[in-house]
């Protein structure tokens, strides 16, 4: 087995993959997430976010005073579709209705 | 020591329940153990294969945060082994692997010495890309559907309009609830863990009136809702729509990984999670193990585990799968069947950030920014933050919870008596 140092185990993102992405000029948390897939697995960044930001801050690529994580969205804990469906109005159980999508929260543009 | 020698010693040597691991292997356990603890005790550490390199993986955080203890339990995929309590006859199955035993897809990890950049890997020529799309992409998500579509019991929906919602039953959450209740405030108090897990975290049990095994999964300011789900064994799930006037968020801190070579091997766990799981089951480590971490936090966990503490800077790599040793930079090696990582905890900010709070980098993670009283967000409610979610505080978290609850009382005593509950 190869020796790899993982930053994100959910999506198999290694430290050297992040270094590769940084060499390509991607130094922002959001850019690195999009390029490598870091933080997009089952844990949604709970294990890897601080490791990534430590790495960026240590290399002077992120300002510790202003650096921000990528947006945390629901669900932050696992929930089954069955449980979510229990909140549906009774009418939707027999006749499908369309419901306007809720707007994203203010400030959470990413 | 053989692969399946027990890694733990128990005060009560007689197991009283048994689960079936990987179709046919009986694993002895004690009532109250989590599935992760029982598997760990039995040395059954590999629970899945990883997404890209197809490396063996096992439970890491042992406290409901990471994503790699997910297993199939009684026909339902993607269940957290670390928070599922063992029941007699439980069927537990590894996930996301081709075959039991040596997995041929592991060749990907062996043959690819370098990194896999999926933006360029097997994109051209087109025929190669088609093979990749058809085969390689399907290696991830081998997990099959549930055995049955219907759950054991139907889910219910409940609405709550508490004066104060308190999320978290660690030191800060407990102290806050005590203060709020003493002042006669109506509190809905929830935590995602079960009672035994919370008692294992903190010696004092004072958990009366707690709605346990209830995870808040989302905050929806436009709908004025905090959404939570209660899942207890043998009961239908309860979805909770909560519209509180005040919220005290005391969600604590999580355990990050430490990026060392082979830090993903089965048998690499979080030190804090391991201590809590052992406490919960009255078990002690029998196997050789080491703690990797620096500072007082790591030293305290190493003392709790009665195992040596190694500075991450001195580590060359972790060896074996499941782990067998830690190779040091000076060439020496420490035998270890478990490697416990003790990075400084990172605040569990995700939920309260959804509610509109700001976060700042505190050197270890993103901590909630709050005013002097403890307020961190306003909206249809006032959100207060207390304890480790504002930066790791350890034992001082209780005092912080008490202080924030008193500030909440002072800020709202006049208005709450007059205005009706929404």
Description:
The complex is a heterodimer of chains A (110) and B (422). Chain A has 110 residues and is mostly helical. Chain A has one domain: BFD-like [2Fe-2S]-binding domain (Arc Repressor Mutant, subunit A, Orthogonal Bundle). Chain A has helices at 15-23, 29-36, 49-58, 81-85, 90-94; strands at 6-8, 13-14. Chain A has a two-stranded antiparallel ribbon. In chain A, a hairpin with a 4-residue loop joins β1 and β2 (13-14). Chain A is elongated. Mean pLDDT of chain A is 85; it is low at 92-97 and 103-110. With 422 residues, chain B is of the alpha/beta class. Among the domains of chain B are: 8-109 and 119-139, Ubiquitin-like (UB roll) (Roll); 156-254 and 346-418, FAD/NAD(P)-binding domain, CATH 3.50.50. Chain B has helices spanning 35-41, 107-111, 126-139, 171-182, 195-201, 271-281, 296-305, 350-354, 397-418, and strands at residues 8-10, 17-21, 25-29, 48-49, 56-57, 70-73, 76-80, 91-93, 156-160, 164-167, 187-190, 214-220, 225-230, 238-242, 246-249, 253-254, 268-270, 283-285, 289-292, 309-310, 315-319, 325-328, 333-335, 338-341, 346-347, 359-361, 366-368, 375-378, 382-385. In chain B, the strands form 9 sheets. Chain B has a 5-stranded mixed β-sheet, covered by helices on one side. A 5-stranded mixed β-sheet of chain B has the order 11-10-15-29-28, with helices on one face. In chain B, β26 and β27 (366-368) form a beta hairpin. In chain B, α5 (195-201) packs across α6 (271-281) and α6 (271-281) runs parallel beside α7. Chain B is globular, with a radius of gyration of 23 Å. Mean pLDDT of chain B is 91; it is low at 416-422. Chains A and B meet through α1, α3 and α4 of A and β12, β14, α8 and β26 of B.
């Amino acid at each position: 087995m190869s020796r790899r140092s993982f930053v994100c185990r959910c999506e198999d993102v290694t430290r050297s993959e992040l270094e590769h992405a940084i060499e390509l000029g991607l130094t922002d948390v959001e850019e690195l997430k999009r390029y490598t897939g870091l933080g997009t697995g089952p844990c949604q960044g709970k294990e890897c976010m601080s490791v990534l930001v430590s790495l960026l801050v240590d290399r002077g690529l992120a300002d510790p005073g202003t650096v921000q994580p990528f947006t945390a969205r629901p669900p932050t804990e696992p929930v089954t579709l069955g449980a979510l469906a229990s909140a549906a109005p009774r009418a939707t159980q027999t006749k499908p209705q369309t419901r306007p999508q809720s707007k994203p929260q203010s400030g959470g543009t990413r | 020591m053989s692969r399946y020698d027990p890694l733990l010693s128990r005060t009560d040597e007689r197991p009283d329940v048994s689960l079936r691991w990987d179709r046919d292997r009986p694993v002895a356990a004690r009532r109250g153990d989590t599935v992760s603890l029982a598997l760990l005790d039995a040395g059954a550490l590999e629970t899945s294969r990883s997404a890209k390199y197809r490396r063996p993986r096992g439970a890491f955080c042992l406290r409901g945060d990471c994503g790699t203890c997910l297993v199939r339990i009684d026909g339902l995929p993607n269940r957290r082994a670390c928070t599922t309590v063992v029941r007699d006859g439980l069927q537990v199955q590894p996930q996301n692997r081709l075959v039991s035993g040596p997995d041929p897809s592991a060749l990907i990890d062996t043959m690819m010495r370098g990194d896999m950049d999926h933006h360029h890997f097997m994109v051209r020529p087109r025929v190669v890309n088609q093979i990749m799309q058809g085969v390689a992409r399907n290696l991830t998500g081998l997990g099959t559907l549930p055995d049955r579509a219907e759950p054991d019991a139907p889910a219910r929906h409940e609405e709550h309009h508490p004066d104060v919602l308190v999320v978290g039953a660690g030191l800060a959450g407990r102290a806050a609830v005590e203060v709020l209740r003493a002042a006669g405030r109506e509190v809905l108090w929830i935590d995602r863990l079960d009672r035994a897990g919370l008692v294992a975290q903190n010696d004092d049990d004072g958990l009366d009136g707690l709605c346990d095994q209830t995870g808040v999964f989302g905050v929806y300011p436009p709908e004025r809702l905090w959404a939570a789900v209660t899942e207890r064994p043998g009961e239908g799930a309860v979805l909770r729509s909560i519209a509180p006037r005040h919220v005290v968020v005391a969600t604590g801190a999580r355990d990050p990984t430490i990026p060392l070579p082979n830090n993903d091997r089965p048998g690499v766990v979080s030190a804090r999670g391991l201590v809590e799981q052992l406490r919960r089951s009255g078990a002690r480590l029998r196997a050789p193990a080491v703690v990797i971490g620096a500072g007082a936090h790591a030293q305290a966990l190493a003392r709790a585990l009665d195992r040596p503490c190694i500075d991450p800077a001195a580590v060359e790599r972790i060896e074996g799968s499941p782990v067998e040793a830690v190779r040091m930079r000076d060439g020496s090696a420490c035998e270890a069947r478990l490697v416990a990582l003790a990075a400084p905890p990172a605040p569990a900010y995700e939920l309260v950030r959804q509610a509109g709070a700001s976060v700042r980098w505190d050197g270890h993670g993103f901590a909630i920014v709050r005013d002097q009283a403890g307020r961190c967000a306003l909206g249809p409610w006032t959100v207060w933050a207390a304890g480790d979610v504002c930066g790791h505080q350890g034992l001082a978290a209780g005092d912080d919870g008490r202080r924030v609850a008193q500030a909440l009382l002072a800020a709202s005593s006049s208005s709450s008596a007059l205005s009706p509950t929404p």
